[in-house]
Design brief:
Blueprint: H1 3-17, E1 25-34, E2 39-47, H2 53-65, E3 76-80, E4 89-92, E5 98-101, H3 103-108
Antiparallel strand pairs: 1-2, 3-4, 4-5
Amino acid sequence: MDRNTAKLARAALNNAIGSDPINGFTVEVQNGSFNASEVTFKVTMRKEGTKSQAEAMAEEFAKIEGFKMTNAKGDKIVAYKHRSPKFPWIVQKASGGQYKYTDKHMVAEGFKA
């Protein structure tokens, strides 16, 4: 198995699962690995409407630091990495890209409440 075959397998799995919840659970296919004969993916199932651990931690630390979850430009905080002291904040820009921010950068970008 090569990288392209693994990508095709992931696409097939995503198509089989679809975007609709299954029995009240949201299914998310994450990183995978492959060898010569098989491909393995991490699959996360979460009750529909609940937040991921990363989202919950981001909200908690944003509240502690006095940051809003979104700024005027439409950018939003998606994660907080407590083990990354230099760039703990992960922000998704309105254009779609994700970036790592420092506390000072968060204030400069207008997240301060």
